[in-house]
Amino acid sequence: MGAVDFISKPFRREELLARVRTNLELGRLRADLETRVAQRTAELHNAIEQLKLEVNERRRSELASREAKRVSGESQTPLL
Hints:
The protein is mainly α. The protein has one helix at residues 13-76. It is rod-shaped and about 110 Å long.
């Protein structure tokens, strides 16, 4: 809260209730936002891990393809 929530005396009941409601709502919204950020962060971490797996799989596939081409090329070379 702090200085922005300072209420001078005598205070008006309606103003006090409005400020309390506002601060409660801000707290709820802040908590909701933190939850959403945590969820989205977890989703992004999962997506990054999935992409890493896909990159590694493509690298293995490319290496296997190159090796197959190399071996295939060697087998077609006539022996002297």
